Amino acid sequence: MKKFIGILLALAVATSVMARVNTTRKGLTTQRVATESLVVPLDTVTADTLHGGKRGFVDGGIVLKGYSKRLSDRYETFFVTNNTENAIGHVTITFIYTDMKGVMLHSRTETIACNLAKGATTMAKIRSFDTKRLYYYAGPKPRRSATPYKLKVRIESYEVVMKRE
Q: Which residue among 6, 80, 96, 114 has the highest number of C-beta atoms inside a 10 angstrom radius?
């Protein structure tokens, strides 16, 4: 009986090894486009919230709006709109998290790759600072006990992408 189970086990292992398929595609190449990068520093103006006004937070032609982070979310999401005259490659943003009294809870700077053409909008997603899921963005109160927070934003820089002809 043990011999029979051993043979079945060996056959199962051999079959699974033979069934593997190499899914790597051959013959694919990438096309390089020559670009120049120019990092443009902006004024350090802060906004109380990303969606405090109807236009959102505007600084130097970059608009941030629609910020969302519920208590159970692992990610923070918001929209980035490029209202500059050029395409942009990435945006560097400082996030300052405060409690409802204005005491700072956390601060961080994130560089978001967005590759936005002039006038385009994209949704950005970053990992939440709240790894233990104890905080929620000020708004509707969640079912379980948690601490609300406010957000201040500062756009540090953005990359202007220009194609060489």
A: 80
CA distance to 21, 26, 103, 153, per residue, from 29 (Å): 22, 9, 52, 40
Residue 62, Cβ neighbours under 10 Å: how many?
A: 23
Q: Assess contact for 49 and 137: CB atoms under 8 A.
A: no
What's the CA gap between 36 and 143, in Å, rounded? 50
Residue ranges per domain, the chain? 33-163
CATH number of 33-163: 2.60.40
30-62 tens-digit pLDDT: 444 333 434 443 333 333 334 344 445 555 688
pLDDT digits (tens, 9 = 90+) for 122-157: 999 999 999 999 999 988 888 888 999 999 998 888
Q: Return the SS3 of 87.
A: strand
